Amino acid sequence: MSDARLEAFAKTTATLKDAVARVVVGQTQVVEEVLICLFAGGHALLEGAPGLGKTLLVRTLAEAMELRFSRIQFTPDLMPGDIVGTNVVVEDERGRKRFELSKGPIFGQLVLADEINRATPKTQSALLEAMAEKSVTIAGTRHLLEEPFFVLATENPIEMEGTYPLPEAQLDRFLFKVLVPSPDEDTLVGIFDKTTGNASSEVPRVVDGPRLLEMRKLVREVHVPEALTRYAARLVRASDPSLEAAAPVAKKYLRYGAGVRGGQSLLLAAKVHALFAGRPHVSFADLTRVAAPALRHRLIPSFEAEAEGVSADKIVERLLAEVPELPATVGRIAT
Question: What superfamily does domain 219-326 belong to in CATH?
Answer without folding.
Answer: Magnesium chelatase subunit I, C-Terminal domain (1.10.8.80)
